Amino acid sequence: GFTCGIVGLPNVGKSTLFNALTETVAAAAANYPFCTIEPNTGRVPVPDKRLDIVAGLAKSAKTIPTQIEIRDIAGLVRGASKGEGLGNQFLAAIRETDAILHVLRCFENDDITHVEGNVDPLRDAELIETELLLADIESLARQRDGLAKRAKAQDKEAKARLDLLDRVLPQMEDGTSARRLALSSDECALLSGLHLLTAKPVLYVCNVDEDAAASGNIWTERVAAMAANEGSRHVVISAEIEAQLAQLGKGERDEFLQTLDLDEPGLNRVIREGYSLLGLLTFITVGPKEARAWTVEQGATAPEAAGVIHTDFQKGFIAAEIVAYDDFVRLGGEQGAKEAGRMRLEGRDYVMKDGDICHFRFNV
Ligand code: GDP
């Protein structure tokens, strides 16, 4: 699976957000095969209006959204990279994730202790980032000897990685996160082999009070500027509101959203942004029984997509019949697309596009 890890200082709203995410799932559990995998890990359906539209046109009996995994990684504090507060365990947990949802406290409340004394999301973000960066610098130092040995033994990849390491380490020691280094795509590929925490894509999640859920506040504006400056994205949500929304039925929820001036739960944005952070795309299979969304990494080929559904589909892959989502909708479904010549037969080299509606042909 593809995993987003929720990180942030204590008392910023991580577990409130995580619970809201997984309660939404629990609410949907009657229909979907989703579950909480472990106490701190859950699978979350990815909201996608396209799936409902496709199901409507094809008169499918049900829809099955695709899902991502969300993990609550509590316990990061100042000094984590030196082992403070079980720091090493938390850093190891972050290493296993594919992307980071960094929750920042953008609400004031005297009853809820702020571990750093006062609300200041930019300082908090930098504090966490510094811990991750220190852990990366240490990890690079540890990896260097091994790489140097292998480079000496004529291992070309190790040599290339060692050269890159020696170039980026000083920049990182000066405070530049790995994701902010100016690198070519080849260098990025080499870097990914170094498993750095600060190379992971980040979504900043600004947790605000109810009154700022629609408009944001002075803190979220500062986070927005910081995120834009480093090429990251941010969302504004109120974790408490989301937790309340997660408890409501659809009718009540829509009413509550209206009073808050919101079109949809903020969680939807968090999940969608998380999904795009992971570099994924969605393809759809559709029939009378169900319309279902599936996930592959951007750049995946048609046989790889088939393999997500079943390994036999990949092994015996012959071809894929594909209709682009826009054609499917414009031409009123599969039959219309076929008649208009918009159903394409694609082979093994076809690179999947977001929204492709597919039938796979395969040998068994
Ligand atoms: P964590 O330590 O980051 O997991 O933080 P929690 O989710 O446990 O939240 C810490 C406290 O802040 C709890 O009492 C929450 O109810 C409260 N809290 C979380 N989000 C909000 C929010 O948006 N507004 C306010 N006022 N309180 C919040």
CATH level 1 class label of the largest domain? Alpha Beta
**Radius of gyration, CA atoms, in whole angstroms:** 23 Å
Q: State the secondary-structure class.
A: alpha/beta
What is the string of SSEs from the N terminus onward? EHEEHEEHEHHHEHEHHHEEHHEHHEE
pLDDT averaged over residues: 91
CATH structural architecture of the largest domain: 3-Layer(aba) Sandwich
Can you count the beta strands? 13
The strand order across the widest sheet is 2-3-5-1-6-7-8
What general outline do the C-alpha atoms trace? flat
- Number of continuous helical runs: 14
GO molecular function: ATP binding; ATP hydrolysis activity; GTP binding; metal ion binding; ribosomal large subunit binding
Domain TGS: 279-362
Function: ATPase that binds to both the 70S ribosome and the 50S ribosomal subunit in a nucleotide-independent manner.
Cofactor: Mg(2+)
Provide tags for this entry.
seven-stranded mixed sheet; 2 domains; 364 residues; flat; 20% strand; three-stranded mixed sheet; Rossmann fold; 14 helices; Ubiquitin-like (UB roll); binds guanosine-5'-diphosphate; alpha/beta
Verbal overview:
- By secondary structure, this protein is of the alpha/beta class.
- It folds into two domains: 3-277, 3-Layer(aba) Sandwich (Rossmann fold), CATH 3.40.50.300; 299-362, Roll (Ubiquitin-like (UB roll)), CATH 3.10.20.30.
- It has helices at 14-28, 49-58, 87-95, 121-152, 156-173, 185-192, 218-230, 239-247, 250-259, 266-277, 302-309, 311-315, 325-330, 334-339, and strands at residues 3-7, 36-38, 41-45, 62-64, 67-72, 99-105, 202-207, 233-237, 280-286, 290-297, 317-323, 344-346, 357-362.
- It has a seven-stranded mixed sheet with strand order 2-3-5-1-6-7-8, with helices on both faces. A three-stranded mixed sheet has the order 4-10-9, sandwiched between helices. Strands 12-11-13 form a three-stranded antiparallel sheet.
- The chain is flat, with a radius of gyration of 23 Å.
- The chain starts with a strand and ends with a strand.
- Residues 8, 10-16, 74, 107, 109, 112, 207, 209, 238-240 line the site of guanosine-5'-diphosphate.
